[in-house]
## 1
Amino acid sequence: MVLLYDSKFSKKSKTETLQSKYLKSLLPHVFRTEGDMANFDPLKILKSLKKETELNKRDACHITELVVRRIISSGIKFLSGPHIREIVCSILSEQHYENERKLYTRIGMPLMDYEAKLEGKNVKKKSYRLINPEEIHQWAAKKISNEYTLLRILNSEESQAHLYGDIHIHKLPYFDLSPYSQMWDPRMILEHGLPPISNLEYYNKSGPANSLKTAISHLAKWLAIVQSEFSGFQCYEYITMFLAPYTLGLTCEEIEQIMQQFIYEINQVIIPQTNLYPSVIFTCVPTVPKNLLNVPAIGPYGKILGKYGDFKDECLILFNTLTNIYIKGDHNGKPFNSPKREIKIEKHWIKDFESSYLKLMEETISMGSPNFFNMCSKRNSLVDVNLSKYQSMGSLQNVILNLPRYAYISNNEDECFSIINDKIELCSRILRKKRELIGKRLKSNLLPLCSGTINGEQIFKLHEQKLSISFIGLNEMVKQLTNFELHEDDSAHNFGKKVVLFMAEKCKMMSERDNVYYHLSEESSGVSSQRLARLDIRHFPEKARLIINKKYTNSCHLRENIDISLLERIKKQAVFHPILNGKTFTNLPLKEKIYGTNKLWDLIKNICFNTSTSNFTFYFNDTET
């Protein structure tokens, strides 16, 4: 057979040779996706190799000839496009063209995996996912997106770091398309209607809401619409303040009925991508913060009704109304899991609105805890917020550091810090790729809502988005290097603080260097903690003996069920909050029989006044001492 790369043959002679009657008799027909049969044409392989890989013409000809020889020698009677590509990839691997194989491969899944999903096999009993046709379609699409990101977007070092467990790329299936989370300014919808952007020809536009009932409908529907472009949670800031002007002339009963409808609509209209309920957060205040008193207040029909400082009483009514709704729960008395409220607590509000906060304690004990945001801490204290423009900020992506792994593979503290430094740099490269990708998606209008504009200004501001680096397992890392857990010895706790300070300074340095905003956060995902722990148990069975319940402790938290008082736990974990410039959280275990409303409120005041805790929530655990 004539070699394809032999230079003495012209293009015409090659074609005539390859497609000679003799070859045609040896080569099978190809079934095409269009539904018909076609003659096998080796030149199509050659052209696709040159187009899709980095092979030069000579090497591409060589691979094509090997494929033709393989097909002829095997005696295959029938071929399809995917089958041909499998053969090409096999030969690329055999010839040690591994990078070219990655570029040329197909992405998908085994048929048995898809059929198992259809038949409901391998579904965990305590699954937090609703299994329906759309979820199955999403699952299949995520499999493809995962492979695409690992094969095409990330290089070998970055892909291997995720697969092996050095890091965890959160929401990997959405890496190539979607930002993670977003905080929306409600005024954007209240002032401009639904949708608020003007460059969506395929949506019918509603004008600004003329009542509280219409306003909450617009706000809920915007979350439902825009969730299609995000992989994580959505947030509305200061919801009680921004809705206050719409309550004028309504009775408390009418306000409660409408706000209850708001909660139901978010639960029943928004289709979550990964959970049984939508990931939505409201930040709630009992009054108008002093730095926002003179901000123009938007009311019915999008008109200005004085200043928000004129609506303090209405803000408090909404605050209390939401508490009453959450205490009652739904028709069957079931708690509302979403939207999750973040309750802001400011120093002067503790005394002025104590009765309202005490009502929240009743809700916390009976129906579950909201998130509490401690504005008494220096980290969260009131700052001047420029509300002359809509506030729009969020997080593009989160990459998680596996701190225990770095202790396992290092011989001493210095080497461990060097590994941490390298892994943070690796995270920064991945995050910059994400930022570049989202920039391309905005320009190509693949994120039509985010790329939408109001008065010529894009509502999704890429330059204000954060790039999040978080971490798990500080406690296990410290134990590996010092022989003590964080709570067992002051030197171990101080070493943990040293590690977090190092990571925070590294993120600050990179932010200045790269002109982007890296922020160091705590990681709340139990999925990533379990995945990384499971991998370490497999790769480092001797050193990973400290892992309890097959998961690592979250971020810089102390291990659960240790013999330590609750207040001491709070203080030790609070030390890390001022260091972090990203998301923080503290999950506090309580005994329901011990903590009544007054005692729980005293505990919260103690946390706010006497610790550096930034964000906290409660859960009940009868085993906690």
## 2
Amino acid sequence: MQRDHRRVERGWRILCCLGILLAGMLQGGFARSRITDPETFFGFPMGADRQLARWDRMVEYFVRLEKESPRLKVLDMGNTGMGNPFLVLIISAPENLARLDALQKINHAITDPGEVPESELSALVEEGRAVICQSMGLHATEVGGTQMTPELAFHLLSRDDPATRRILEEVLFFMIPCFNPDGQVMVTDWYRKTRGTAHEGISLPWLYHPYAGHDNNRDGDFLNLVESRYAARILYLDWPPQAYIDHHQMGSYGPRFYVPPYCEPIRPYADPLVWREISWYGSHIATRLEQEGFEGVINDAMFPGWGHFGWHWITPFHNIAGMLTESASARLATPIYIHPDQLRADSRQFPEYEAQSNFPSPWPGGWWRLADIVAQKKTAALALLDHAAKNRRIILENAILKARHQTERGAAAPANVLVIPSAQHDRGTAAGMIRILLQSGVKIHRLADSRMMGERKYPPGSWVIPMGQPKMGLIRNLLMQTRYSDNRWTRAPSGHPLEPYDLATHTMHEFMGVRVDPVRIEGFIDFPRVTAADLPAGEVKSAEGPWVLDGRRNDSYRAVNLLIDRGVKVFRLHEPAGKGKTGDFVIHRAEYSLLAETADACGVTFDTLPGEHPSTEKPVQRSRLGLFRRYYGGNMDEGWTRLTLEQFDFPYRSVRGGEIDRGQLNRRYDTLVFPHDLPALIKGVIPERYRRWIPTDIPAEYRSAISARGIENLVTFVRSGGCLVAFGGACNFAIEELDLQVTDVTADFSAGEFFCPGSTLKVNFDPGDPLAYGMPEEALVLFYDSPVFRIRPGSRNRDYVTVGRYREKEILQSGWLIGEEKIGGMAAMVRATVGKGEVVLIGFRPQHRCQTHGTFKLLFNCLLR
């Protein structure tokens, strides 16, 4: 009887287990059946040959998935520059999504543990979830990442296997499915337009971002682009992740897939645990790819740990394991066939295309498709999530350790605070820098009264940044002098220096012309914390004019433009007058309400300037400005120039080669600006070494160039009274085509003789020269592929003026400079009179990436004459 009872009990248990199992299977089947799969929605599988899903349809798909699954929350961060929605997807278990507020507080406490007791932190680690972020489509021609995201989302929303459930339960996954929606739309439309023609698969003829093109991944520090600010809100403020991957594509003729870690050298001042974690995550990703049979996977090569300050390279200094993947590219969505003998290596820590420990299974060649890219990126993305799910506690404990260690290092540093005095050459730009740092999550304080700090007394309103905070490494790189590594990792066996991956320094305050003082203090910082609302506002000091605007402030130029747009006459002082300095702007008559509105919009102060000063004033005339804009993939420096002009409300028109060829330029323009570029590309010739990036089979209507006739028209434009302004490499175009009495002294030096890759150098300016109004006598400029000028002896010496000149010695501030004696005392900026007009040569880029605020005025002065 007892045995029968046990049999019945055991039978019920089996039936219950079967019922639970069946219910789970039914639930899983129901989940799968009610989640729309990508192929059904788009009409083709993701990665299908010659098919691209457009961003608007992808937005529709993700919104539908949110309605179909409790595992997904869609965040619409706002509109992009062209009005497309910028989405962030949060994928996790429904119970995690139901308590996001609580999990966010836990994440903030773990990211910045401060004074949280150890016992509480242990409980938070137990309760918290690993926050992982992955982004795709930053570079819009790298189409595979964004095309993969519907597959990745569907996988996580529709499956109920143990691995997927573990990811959902242990991880909050933040996915940026397209970092550049505007570019995605442009590229998709271009591909569809050219599909089936002789031009199928070639790159876009113009920038694939409205302003930045490929450079949009260089904006993780200054946050100039609206898309960057959306990403920064997630990564730096609202949901700092423990790990982040930015998925990219690279050239077609090397390895199939690069995964972490980076190779040497690494940029200093990140917590060592970050570099260990990057190797830890990368090893798991590479192992998973090998397990699933992917060939041609490489790590610890090609991409160094010292790169630009874009997203995957700046996040380690936010204590985030910031990583990168790079897939070999097809021709957008068109397959490409690669012969075995076309495969190559010859990059950092990858000398030959053959098996090595970090590249154990070379790909042999053959057809390469978008479907291959989608598959490997999906596997890599899932591998990161799987690793985070399995190691959630360790990851959260590491986050606490990184924050604490960096705080301790900063507090113990010889300079444990950075002071930004309120008395600055350009106080508005200093406030702008503070605003950027606040968006990056840096803790900043402000003096309410005068205070001795170190050996100086600082006035009220000065900003104080303690180094003893989790983002010490970020602060150290952005706000203190840095020097690029000069060692075996940065030189070839011959001793010649190797180019850094982008600039040799990213010192924000040096780019912006803001003074920052490293100071050692003792005791606690009890000054109030700064918020964006605390930044100084503009004012009008008197209801009666005349008024004066400080010509040293960049924001004053914006105010002048707004006033000119409203019909107000503006004058400029060419000699000191009362409170006014040479270069200050004067307004005699204007409505007080208009001045107040302008002061509020620009953050400027309209001070009083008693008396009349007719002999020292001249009226300001704003140039009718044309900005040269070419095709052949577009010119990033031109895009950044447009953004700079728009930020300061300078009106302009884009000018292409065809318009210059037609002539009569003086009827429409006073000033033509040529941003940094190769002279050959300005004239429509693609140098051989650039043909791997710039398509030669571009449609005829997009083969922009300035012809020989157009060059004659430019000469006529200048000789008839026009002004031509050139930056960087475009200076060599102007020198040659206008037969200027100027030589680029760097042109014939080898890298071993002269080398300066993206560094800040010291230049002496004459603030009494109208082109240098508002500049300090010595300023820092960003030297990056910059010509340096010598005015050759000749009959026209009097027609040339040196506006800025490199110091004789000790020229380097931050970065890397070899052969300073080659440029010591040489001209950095020259003005040449040509007929009735003039040519302005600015060897450096005064508006580089809309970041070098310290030299913006050199451009602006060319436009307000």
## 3
Amino acid sequence: MTSDARRPTVILSSMKSVIVGTAGHIDHGKTTLVKALTGTDADRLKEEKRRGITIDIGFAHLDLPAPNGEKLRLGFVDVPGHERFVRNMLAGIGGIDLVVLVIAADEGLMPQTREHFDICRLLALRRGMTVLNKSDAVDAETLEVVHMEVAEFLRGSFLDPTHAPLVAASSLTATGIDDVKAALAMVASEATAKDSAALVRLPIDRVFTIKGFGTVVTGTLVAGTIRKEEELEVFPSGKRVRVRGAQVHGEQADAAVAGQRTALNLVGVSTEDLARGMTLATADTFRSTSRLDARLSLLKSAKPLKNGARVHFHAFTSETIAEVRLHGTKQLKPGEEAFAQFKLAEPLLILPADRFIIRQFSPVITIGGGMVLDASPLTRTRPSDDTARFLNIMLEGSPEQMLVARVERRGASGLPLDAVPADMNIRAEEGATLASRAGLVRCGQTLVSPAAFSDASTRVLQALKSFHDANPLVAGISKEELRERVNLSAEVFAAMLAKSAADKRLEISGEQVHLSGRGVVMKDEEAESKKVIEQAFQSAGLKVPLLKDVLASVKVDRIRAQKIMTLLLRDKILIKLADDLVFHHTALAGLRQKISALKSTMAKIDVGQFKELTDVSRKYAIPLLEYLDRERVTRRVGDQRLIL
């Protein structure tokens, strides 16, 4: 973010943006090579200038024409080579598309050459080139020997000279620099562009303040597009920020797209709230995690890694301590691979398919790395065969298979659609399309596997049968009570009821549910008692008897009499207005009609008039008037009722 607010706005989306990372041993000329290519000195710190080494990551850019005429904008991430600053190197190399491995011709392969190369392989980089720098410092014979040594070292890797350029050059004399540019253009043209339509993620590598602008962050935009005035979320803190302005490679831009070095001027946050290792991402979409499952590879040069070991965990610009829990083995031998769960000391935003590096706890050296498979693992006491099967699908399966596996492992609880982005790093609408293709059951906004849906439907029907068997005089069970019995979410339960009702396996009456064909089955004395109770209230009109007296008059026992009463109330044949005040529905219907008919002759009615009109005592009058209020036949105004 420059201090010149008047600089013209530039839109760079017409160019293919490729991030190039440097790698190599200290003093092998990475920074001078970047300067020779771009004209920019990536050593930005005074301490770096004084000591002549790169301490922190630096940045520069270069525009080149591709062999096919396409415009390329290369963003260089210059990383430190000193072993003490490998952690800074890791912060810069996470989002690169290709690497330039720099090896000094006068020194050849050195320790950090090997470590940086190992890191590139562990990050699964697929494209790059090698530069034999300082070619002017040796004679032709020595240069040829070093060339052969390096070629043998790279053989079989993604930098194998049989398909990746190996170019000799001198940053000081500019010899071979044009060859380096030509090779870079060729390799960059083959690089796959990052997805600008994906959900936004920008790992932060620098945080600072510019007078007149405020808080600024920089990073490599690894996915999505960021526009001015867009709201983003900071992970892991969850703070919301607004993008006031954006720059791409030092120029003002209306938007930054995936694959570009980006600087953002943020509103709503201070520099104290931000740090390298945090991530800006699409709001209300992702969640931080402190546990993840991954495929872990251990370097051949590493010592055996024991289950439970502590390591330094690096992903993009973040670094934290992690405990390693190996799946299926107590120790990982050098050169081996295994599934492992990492318990992170600090939460971070990391998603499936992200690459990571682990370094030994002490002494701190790179020992392995791998790929995240699941950033939201289910709680379990120990790994199982199911865990291994699931992780194999996450490693090798198609997107449909991955989604099905994620849904299946949650059983009847299902997977909410709005959780799919955090689980799979895709948009919710993409998840819905995958679900449809995979044949998953959509319960509102929750996805359930067909098998789990069928099993849960069976449990619902079994619970209904058990209820009917235990309550033969009760027509049905309330929806909420049934849902609690089978322990299902509201969305999944509602979908199951609807499907079972459509299949005529159960019936729904208001809030009551019962099996199809399973009405109330009454014995002769129960049916007679039901008739007696109903007639007692129907014949009484508004002067109803006491409920306890009616129940005491029937032939069945008190428990069955109460069940019959519950059935009459549920079917609204009888209506309870107070604890011991029950009316037949025809009596209340007649009362509503009678009061409504008064509107033409009197606008209001008080308690006394109501008692006189209905010939009931105050004990009955007040509950009946309150009932009329609820039914919107009347409305209370002071001591009177307005007839509506």
## 4
Amino acid sequence: MSAEVTLTIDGREITVPEGTLVIRAAERLGIYVPRFCDHPMLDPLGACRQCLVEVEGQRKPLTSCTTTCTEGMVVKTQATSEIAQDGQRGVLELLLINHPLDCPMCDKGGECPLQDQALAYGPGGSRYVDAKRRFTKPIPISEQIKLDRERCVLCARCTRFADQISGDPFIELFERGALEQVSISEDEPYESIFSGNVVQICPVGALTATDYRFRARPFDVVTTSSTCTRCASGCAIDVQTRRGELVRVLAREDRAVNDAWICDKGRWGTGFVAHADRVTEPLVRKGDDFVAVSWTEALDAIAERLRAANGNGGRTAVLAGRHLADEDAFALSRFARTVLGTNEVDTLRPAPSEEETPVLAALPRTETATYADVDAARAIIVAGIDLHQDAPIVYLRARKAARERGTHIIEVGPRRTRLAGAWLPCAPGGEAAVLSALAAELSGAAGAAVVLTGERLAASPGALTAAWNLAIELQGRFGWIPRASGVRGAIEAGLHPALLPGGVRADAVAAAVAAAEAVWGPLPSGAGGGLRSMAAASPEVLFLAGADPVTAVPDASLGSRAIDGAGFVVALDMFLTASSRMADVVLPAASSFERDGTVTTWEGTRASLRGSIPPPGLADTTATILRHVAEAFGRGFPDERTLAREMAALRAERGPAVALDPWAAGAPGKDTRLVVVDDLIDQGTLMAGSDLLAHTAPGPRIGLSPASARARGVSDGARIRARARLGAVAGPAVVDEGIADGCVLVPSNQAGMDVRALLSLDDPFPVVEIEPESGA
């Protein structure tokens, strides 16, 4: 236990851990000390001098944000000390000399500490009579952020965040003295997937968001606390609406998850909510076109086809998307088993394989890794995932552990990401051998190791199981981090061809299935075949729930074959995607901003969703739509409140991890292999309407190691083509020392580059040849 010290603040005694800052001790007593530069999650700086306090025995006032508590210290804040009051008034007067009095039009008006403190502690008038300093305004420092330099108080919150938290030092304090100002290098915009945080923590209106400027004020918005669903991190957010319109998303402090940060996709990737192309009423295909109809007509059309399929023994199938709320996923799984009578279900995943089934079955029943484990780890092993792009907040927590605790980070795979640590490069197929050998190397981290993996690791033979068993050998924790928010919840709900809710194998003995049957009633026997089976067996009726297999499956033809072969397709979606355009009936679904519910994070915890705006038109939640379909078909189906009770009843008890039987490890081939990487900002459906954010997407590119580039005579930036057996893609070459030899990296889902044309589920790492684009 750390030593403690006792001090007095404004006549009140308090005991705090040694090293606590005076400003933090005052907060514990409910005493507010004015400040601008101080932020509890940034290193102290003392730049603004606003938090001056009187300390007994000191010659002059001290900044409470940089002064640590000592035994017997006597502190007086502005509430009890004229010296502290005078110091704070003087600082405010200096700050206001050049600060514009534009509060009524400033976006920070109504939530500005400078505005509040000038009223509460500042002078009643100004002695300054000369003209205020003026600058050209606003200056765009990125697509999303505008800088009004005359408002800046030089608190350095933004630059400290960029340097300490995100590691993106593209925004700095330039010049010195009276000329000092926040700026960026010429023609180098502030590029960071966390850039929106500098807008939120700016204490004045110097940094503002382009898409929020002049749209609303804090006193005329309604704030709803919810959870971000743009990835599986589970960040706490505040959603602000004005007159039923979503105007802003802010990070909400949650020390157990996201501290006080969110990524730009979660903050600004909300344009899809009010997009003009949202499906807002049921659509039924009549000829080559869709016709808007009533819910009754749409439901009757579906029920008629279901009765026909039921009468002739036709097969039915269900395919789930990657962003469903837990209640929607559970309802879909129940609908498939109890209404359609099928285990032919699946969730879209980038690398579905038979090997991942034991791991996915074990997840709901196992105490897997958490943010707290990442914080406390002595070693973090990362394989099959780019935390920076796939789970940004997990990346920040891992980076924080390395910076503050010296945690050793090891990456295994064909690519080195932005995590600062060791990299064990290997071509696809070599991950299992490297992971298996790490146990002996990391014996010193036993009991405090975390192994973090992503969905794509399942494509490398033996790797996912090797990672699971490595965590057990190191007496640590295993974390599986899907890229999308709804994937783990869908798996735990049983939206997997081999699984029932809680990780129960669908083909298990009757005793193992009894728990689900006690809640749901008799269930179909045996396991389904998933998307492959749907494409091969041509179900008579296929339900798509937020699923777009035509564009989201790493096989350009598999999703199309599944839909083309189905006799009747029902799509529950927010948009007419490439898949739903092929459907017979499209039903309008609500987004996560339009429903209450829960979402299962990568940790396995259920975070709350709170609807902040009503669904557009006739749209409704997937769970409610499925209940209406079941009733039209003549079957009973529970409402969402009952579904929530069933979810709780089928939730698995979690215990310690148990080693899995190892799968045959793969071996990297000698040929050059294609490796698909995912960018946070891509061309996905949920990026619709977020044009400013979309402009920051990295775009198409073909990555090579320096050795591979030299061997082929390729220079950085040259236009080249990557050709595989099934097709080819072209783009600019990126020569990167963080790419393993023998690998070619190509991004998924970027405009102008469809990497799926090169892939199949049977060959996730195809052999590729590199040639000049002109050679096509």
